[in-house]
Design brief:
The chain has 99 residues and is mainly beta. The chain has helices at residues 2-11, 46-49, and strands at residues 24-32, 35-42, 52-60, 71-76, 78-86, 91-97. The strands form 2 sheets. It has a 4-stranded antiparallel beta sheet with strand order 1-2-3-4, with no helix packed on it. It has a two-stranded antiparallel sheet with strand order 5-6. The longest helix is centred in the N-terminal third of the chain and has 10 residues, at 2-11. Keywords: Signal.
Length: 99
């Protein structure tokens, strides 16, 4: 829900990025080459691995979600504190270890 509200503010439209069951929260967004890159903490793997994961998706400037429900980026001891940066050529996503 937070992700939807954030992009609704940026794009002026309401749409879903992730409809997977479980908990998704703590979104971070960056804009890269005419595309929004959205990353979030996701709990959908928690039942089988007991680990949180970082998922991400790309969203076009007209609101098209390129990767519905996101792609798994990292799964381990992910905490709720992470950030993203783009320098014009490279995208970096960092997260704090949840131990």
């Amino acid at each position: 829900m937070i992700i939807v509200l954030l992009l609704q503010m940026l794009l002026g439209v309401d749409f879903s990025i992730c409809t997977a069951e479980s908990f998704q929260d703590h979104p971070v967004v960056t804009y890269t080459d005419n595309t929004f890159c959205v990353f979030w903490v996701d709990e959908r793997l928690f039942g089988s691995t007991e680990q949180y994961a970082v998922y991400g998706t790309r969203v076009t400037t007209d609101g098209h979600v390129v990767d519905p429900d996101g792609k798994l980026i990292y799964s381990d001891s992910v905490a709720n504190r992470f950030d993203v940066a783009f320098d014009g050529a490279n995208l970096l996503v960092v997260c704090r270890d949840g131990c």
